[in-house]
Design brief:
Blueprint (H helix, E strand, L loop, with lengths): L1 H20 L16 H15 L5 E5 H7 L4 H7 L16 E2 L5 H8 L9 H5 L1 H7 L3 E3 L7 E3 L12 H4 E10 L5 E10 L4 H19 L3 H30 L4
Antiparallel strand pairs: 1-2, 3-4, 5-6
Helix pairs in contact: 2-9, 3-4
The structure holds heme C.
């Protein structure tokens, strides 16, 4: 019986390890986003509504929540982040959810797959994966959109940021220790940004996606620090009390 219990406990411990092993098979770059950097999040929000929302929604997020969290007034949100109209043809209200009017069926027909909602994508894919994904489009004439992606092979999404990044070519330079292709990109047509500027823009987008996946994360981490501090101080008080109560007991 004892043996059975220990085997079961061992198996239970193995589960998280097994699910980690199913992570990305490709090497991803560190995103190093800073979700406490409001300016970066504001830029990310601007890129998101301009370059992503034509196809993707963030249907669990409201515009005015972003405004509140990122220090923007309702008017600033209306003027800079809202480009859609509601079902009555009026400009979308600031308290509305971030939806678009692109029917899923049409989108699926155009791209092979409907663009998924992105509110929680940072929780699903991780920041590093997103950062690498948006920087890993390369020219591939065998694909319908003329591009492919090393992180997401045969992806249905076109290279929507091509005006900023330009187009790059992929070159396989060897194999890494795990047998995956080691690739290098070469910019064959430059965009409006330098590679460093483009990396920064992508970092802003990923920071925004990370914020959106858990808008409360900065506050949660702060509360965590206060709780640890409280527990630390309380431990000292509890210890002193214990000493006081037991001092006459021998
Ligand atoms: C022209 C339409 C279009 C635009 C614009 C667009 N996407 Fe996509 N995106 C797609 C489609 C279609 C897919 C599904 C691809 C697939 O599954 O093959 C997708 C998939 C994705 C995925 C993968 C989701 C997953 O977990 O499978 C991410 C992440 C993503 N898009 C991010 C973005 C970001 C960030 C932007 C803005 C910079 C953006 N997209 C703009 C069409 C678009």
């Amino acid at each position: 019986m004892k043996k059975l219990i220990s085997v079961m406990m061992f198996l239970a411990l193995m589960v998280p390890a097994a699910s980690f092993a199913a992570g990305p098979a490709v090497k991803v770059d560190k995103a190093n986003v800073d979700v406490t950097n409001t300016a970066s999040l504001q830029r990310g929000a601007r890129y998101f509504v301009n370059y992503c929302m034509g196809c993707h929604e963030a249907q669990y997020m409201r515009y005015n929540r972003i405004g509140r969290d990122l220090g923007l007034t309702d008017d600033q949100v209306r003027d800079n982040l809202i480009f859609t109209r509601d079902e009555f043809g009026d400009p979308t209200r600031v308290g509305a959810l971030m939806k678009n009017a692109y029917p899923k069926r049409d989108a699926a027909e155009a791209f092979g797959t409907a663009p998924p909602d992105l509110t929680l994508v940072a929780r699903v894919r991780g920041e590093d994966w997103l950062y690498t994904f948006l920087r890993s489009y390369y020219l591939d004439e065998n694909r319908p959109m003329g591009v492919n992606n090393t992180v997401f092979p045969n992806v249905g999404m076109p290279h929507v940021l091509w005006e900023l990044q330009g187009f790059q070519r992929k070159e396989v330079v060897g194999k890494d220790a795990r047998g995956h292709d080691e690739v290098r990109f070469e910019l064959v047509q430059s965009g409006s940004m330098s590679p460093a500027e483009y990396d920064k823009a992508v970092r802003d987008i990923v920071a925004f996606l990370s914020y959106m996946g858990e808008p409360i994360q900065t506050e949660r981490k702060m509360i965590g620090i206060w709780v640890m501090l409280f527990l630390f101080i309380f431990t000292i008080i509890a210890y002193l009390m214990k000493k006081e109560y037991w001092k006459d007991v021998h």
